Amino acid sequence: MRLINILFIILGLIFTGIAMIGIIVPVLPTTPFLIISSCCFVRGSERFNVWLKDTKVYKDYAEDFVRDRSMTFKRKVKLMFISDAMLAFPLIKLDSINIRLFIIAVIALKYWYFIFMIKTKKE
């Protein structure tokens, strides 16, 4: 096994671990970390990729998005709320107008992406 494959496997395991923590800790989004870990496993090891995609966590949190770029309304709202809460803190605390404008642009782009680019499916 090549060193680069080992590196991707290690990164995949780290991102999978972060995703698992995200199930318990509400401020950590699970889905993006599972998608990143899947990308790492695709490059590192087919066996690890198959293992990840067979887990209940992957099927519950990422499979639908990866398959057809859709999410339930409930999941969209949860992700938006969590990310808004995380972005609100620096928006309120920082004094720099440039950083505030950047954060507002990120929020606007995030809403545009979630509303127009990710399909909403029934639960």
Task: Show the helix and strand layout.
Blueprint: H1 3-24, H2 30-44, H3 46-54, H4 56-61, H5 63-68, E1 70-72, H6 73-93, H7 97-117, E2 119-121
Parallel strand pairs: 1-2
Helix pairs in contact: 1-2, 2-3, 6-7
Describe the structure.
The protein is mostly helical and 123 residues long. It has 2 domains: 1-68, no CATH class; 70-123. The chain is 81% helix and 5% strand. The protein is built from 7 helices and 2 strands, in the order αααααβααβ. The chain has helices at residues 3-24, 30-44, 46-54, 56-61, 63-68, 73-93, 97-117; strands at 70-72, 119-121. It has a two-stranded parallel sheet. Helix 1 (3-24) packs antiparallel against helix 2 (30-44) and helix 6 (73-93) runs antiparallel to helix 7 (97-117). The longest helix is centred in the N-terminal third of the chain and has 22 residues, at 3-24. It is globular. The mean pLDDT is 89.
